[in-house]
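Structure tokens
________________
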Amino acid sequence: MRSAVIDYTVGSKKFVGYAAYPAAEAYPAVIVAHAWGGRDSFAENIADRLAELGYLGFALDMYGDGKKGDSIEENSALMQPLIDDREELAARVIAAHTAVSGLPGVIKPKIAICGYCFGGLVALDLARSGSSLCGSASFHGFLHGSDHFTSVISAKVLAMHGMQDPMVGEDQISSFCAEMTQKHVDWQLHVYGNAMHAFTNRQANDPAFGTVYSSDADRRSWQLLTDFLREVFADK
């Protein structure tokens, strides 16, 4: 496996992705959308793990220039403008998808995305944008839709949610289910009864904030992702 830093642009702004390549000449690709702190070692590690499975793993950059936050306040300041402007959010993830499509060895019809927390919303919004995509998987992500998106969702969708997550309430779950059903999407929602937000992050240990690691939910959700990717890529 080898890795490389990949520059791409949205308008005149530079974004810096991380690509992990499998040991093959041609391969499907999986985009990894980072949590609110920016493209970090967690997202890059997921890209590496995907490369070990035979996919190109691409950790995108949603903030530009590889920018990362160092505190709750900085993370929120980076994320919130994109939560408020879903059109700009979509433009940035679409640009990452375009960059991945052009990488040597990538089988263009076989591209999927997964995302974590804020990145879960990013992954779902790429599917909502109508982009040509096999699958979109959200780990403990925000689930609320937007009137901005009117396109048909062609991707299969997998959402994995912690029942004790205080950041994603029943209103988001209900609206997500209704949206996916109304748009005739091939979708799944898996709920882990004892899990909170950020259940895949081993560094998460703040019950008061609602972010706690769960080894069971982490293991089970990764297995679900690997099964999901095999299925969506086999269809193409």
In short: Strands lie at 2-10, 13-21, 27-33, 56-59, 106-116, 135-139, 156-162, 187-192, 205-206, 211-212. The CA atoms of residues 143 and 172 lie 6 Å apart. The first strand starts at residue 2 and ends at 10. The chain has one domain: 2-234.
